[in-house]
Amino acid sequence: MLDNRVMGPLEIELQQRLQLIVRGTPWLFRVLEIVRALGLPDWYLAAGAIRNTVWDALHGTTSLRPESDLDVIYFGSVELSHDAERLLRNMAPEYSWEVTNQASVHHWQSHAAGRDIPAYSSISAAVASWPETATAVGVRLSDRDLLEVMAPHGLADLFALTVRPSPDASDPHAYSSRLRQKQWHLRWPRLLVVPGEP
Fold it and tell me: Are residues 147 and 135 in contact, defined by beta-carbon separation less than 8 angstroms?
């Protein structure tokens, strides 16, 4: 999470822009209200739901609904993912939900990367390990209806429409395969895509 006391003016401005986009996207704000009701520890809605909504806005279109899974992440010592997904499906069956405990994600990352990855100390550290900087962004709604943003790599790449590999990626090879799989530039032609490893 970025602390307003140490953020520069540009990052504060980008957070404000992100908050305006989220509040101006009715389905996304409703999703945040739904997830908040679960009371998951240190939770965020992250990844494509946030990234795609911002990229749509920057391309002059309104995101009318999520195009993929809604990635709900949390950080806790108790595994709540399956129960949380079941509750979310009951509360909002029109969406496809994926809930992941970032405190235990290093287990499957170790398997995928073929090397031992130690447990993360926080949700921010776990999100920093995601393949792209523009995807490593989460938003949550506080009990006082304030939007809180977590962006371990900042928001500059997201708003500059730049896709680049995360310097802290758990698996550096995942970036190139995701570029081939996702084909983001077809939907958002103004993206600047930084090539990964061949």
Answer: no
Label each residue of the chain as H, E or C. Answer: CCCCCCCCHHHHHHHHHHHHHHHCCHHHHHHHHHHHCCCCCCCEEECHHHHHHHHHHHCCCCCCCCCCCEEEEECCCCCCHHHHHHHHHHHCCCCCEEEEECCCCHHHHHHHHCCCCCCCCCHHHHHHCCCECCCCCEEEECCCCCEEEECCCCCHHHHCCEECECCCCCCCCHHHHHHHHHCHHHHCCCCEECCCCC
* Low pLDDT (below 50) residues in the chain: 2-5
Residue pointed to by tokens 């792209």: 132
Summarised one tens digit per residue, pLDDT across range 70-94 is: 999 999 999 999 999 999 999 999 9
